[in-house]
Design goal:
With about 120 residues, the protein is of the alpha+beta class. It has 3 helices and 8 strands.
C-alpha cells in the first residue's frame, strides 16, 4: 500500500481482456477502497463484482487483487474521499456508495512480477 499512498489514482482491470480504467481510491484503516462514479451500472464495477479477481497498478506497483463488496465503512470512506479529493469528491453519494469495492492482495499467477516498468506489467 505504501507504493500507492502518494498516488491520486490507480488503474484496475477485471474480467476478460486487457481493458484498464483509472479510478480514484482511498485507504481506510489500512484497507484499499474504490467506488464507481456511475454506480453499479459502471462496466468496470460490473466486471470486478462478477469476476472478483483482477489487477491494479499505480506508482511502481502492479499486482493481482481480489475485489469484494464492502458496505460496512461508508462513513469512513466518504470522509476519506472528501479529505483526499476535496470538492472534486463527487463520488460521495448513494449511487457510488452502492458501488464500493474493497481491494485486497491476491496470489500472483506463476511467472508474474509485482514490479511495474515503463507502463507495462513485467513477466519474470
Amino acid at each position: 500500500m505504501a507504493a500507492l499512498s502518494a498516488s491520486e489514482s490507480l488503474e484496475l482491470s477485471a474480467g476478460p481482456g486487457d481493458a484498464w480504467v483509472e479510478v480514484g481510491f482511498v485507504l481506510v484503516d489500512g484497507m484499499l477502497f474504490v467506488r464507481a462514479f456511475r454506480g453499479r451500472r459502471s462496466q468496470w464495477f460490473q466486471a470486478a463484482a462478477d469476476h472478483r479477481r483482477g489487477r491494479i497498478r499505480g506508482g511502481t506497483l502492479s499486482r493481482a487483487v481480489a475485489f469484494a463488496a464492502d458496505g460496512g465503512h461508508s462513513a469512513e470512506i466518504d470522509e476519506a474521499y472528501q479529505v483526499k479529493y476535496g470538492a472534486a469528491a463527487l463520488i460521495v453519494n448513494a449511487e457510488a456508495r452502492a458501488a464500493t469495492l474493497r481491494i485486497s492482495p491476491a496470489e500472483e499467477p506463476a511467472g508474474h512480477s509485482t514490479v511495474e516498468g515503463r507502463g507495462r506489467h513485467l513477466s519474470t
